[in-house]
Amino acid sequence: MQSIETKSSWVVAAVALVILALSFGAPWITIVALKPIAAETGGLRSVPALASALAWVGYGAGGIVMGVVAERVGVRWTVIFGALMIAVGLALSTGGARWQLYLGQALFMGFLGIGGMNAPFYVYVSRWFDRRRGSALALISSGSYFAGAIWPPIFERAIAHAGWRQTMLYYGLVEIVVVVPLAVAFLRAPPELLLPSGLLEKSFRSVMGWPPNVVFALMSAAVVFCCIPMAMPQAHLPALCSDLGILPSHGAAMLSVLLGTAFVSRQFWGYVADRIGGLKTVLMGSSFQIVAMSAFMLSQDEVGLFTVAAAFGLGFAGIIPAYIMAIRELFPAAEAYWRIPTFLLCSGTGMAIGGWLAGVLYDYFGFYAPAFAAGVAANAINLLIIGTLVLRRRYAPMRLA
Questions:
Q1: Which residue from 35, 192, 290, 349 puts its CA 20 to 30 A from 378's CA?
Q2: Which residues, 6 or more positions from 138, have their beta carbon under 8 angstroms from its beta carbon?
Q3: Amino acid 398: pLDDT
Q4: Of 271-280, 352-361, 384-393, where does the model show the most confidence?
């Protein structure tokens, strides 16, 4: 069979990477400015942590709605609309009131903004590939980590020079100026053809010998427990470094190391997923993650934290795209437009819980070790669920309707 992959497929994937790297930069402003924002809200770190959590939930929930919209009008228009909404959300977040911060991050930047890009892009780009889909999904899913690698040091300098409010306003303008022209120029209809409508009803009646929605529910629950520990270092590493007397610029650099190694290693995990499949890749990545998460509880010096941050980035990077590939392996392509956004909502919910929970536990205990311990426990539950699915797939192959 002739492949649908062409040079245009990789051009589209590269453009999606650039757009996501820029759009996912917006939430990092709140993370880098966690302590200054907390200082203006009664000293509670749970306030900016909750705002970041709401952004995760917002873009996860928005992905479901905007995924349906993208199926009808095309991803180009949801991306353009999303860029405008990110700028609106950043502007509203500078207002000074808690409700403005929460609404700007959750609704405009999350639900309408990144929600119109992230999940629709997973479905859109997967339709440009049939042979190296795992590598392509790993590439575009690296956008959030590419953002985390390049933007925190820049934001740290910008916030120190101009303040977090001006940084948000200027970044919103950059979002519009860059993303809108890219969407107009490159985001055209994908080549993959969906099944005729009469065949859509004849979905897989059994996945690994179980009802399809049972398997999907287990995968969705697993990703929640996987993303709780995944979010904690990403959301609180600069603040942790500041508590330990490490310079803010070094804390931002440490976050860049974590996400930079994640960006590089994600390409490796995509290669692995193309060869061993999505579920086994998730199991491997989650095993790496729990080891690195445990090491955060034992590291208190700058060199040790840099080392653990790099190891954490190497481990967790391939988990989410491997999940997406597993969904494409186990379920019909015609269901991707709702299964992938729904799954990413669960992923975003886990990230939100992790970032918020770490802030709450810090406010209660005054240090981060209890939060990291909670992350390790959640990761263990994830390993139990994914291990069960891997064994089930090995001994109960998928049957078609």
A1: 35
A2: 266, 267, 269, 270, 271, 273, 318, 321
A3: 46
A4: 384-393
Domains: count for the chain: 1
Tokens 């390993």 found at: 383
The range of the structural domain enclosing residue 248 comes to: 7-190+204-395
Give dist(CA 130, CA 162) in Å, integer: 47
Strand partners, 206: 399
Structure token digits, residue 170: 């200027």
Structure tokens at 244: 């330990």
Examine residue 25 and state whether it is found in any structural domain, yes or no. yes
Tell me the residue type at 233.
P
Report the candidate in 22, 118, 135 with the shortest Cα–Cα distance to residue 75.
118
Specify if 111 maps to a domain.
yes
The pTM assigned to this predicted structure is 0.75
Tell whether the model's pLDDT for residue 201 goes beyond 70.
no
Q: 178: domain CATH number?
A: 1.20.1250.20
Query: How many Cα atoms within 13 Å fall on the side-chain side of residue 383?
Result: 16
Residues 6+ apart with CB under 8 A from 303: none
Long-range contacts of 346-349 (CB under 8 A, 24+ apart): 346/60, 346/220, 346/221, 346/223, 346/224, 347/60, 347/223, 347/224, 347/227, 347/320, 347/323, 348/56, 348/57, 348/58, 348/59, 348/60, 348/61, 348/63, 348/227, 349/56, 349/57, 349/60, 349/224, 349/227
Predicted pLDDT at 401:
37
Give the least confident one: 144-148, 161-165, 380-384.
144-148
Rg (CA), the chain: 20
Mean pLDDT across the stretch 268-281? 87
| Residue in the structure block whose two tokens are 């809108």 | 180
Listed in sequence order, the residues at least 6 apart from 77 whose beta carbon sits closer than 8 Å to its beta carbon are: 69, 70
CB 18 within 8 A of CB 182: yes
333: which 2 tokens? 């392509």
**SS3 track for 371-398:** HHHHHHHHHHHHHHHHHHHHHHHHHCCC
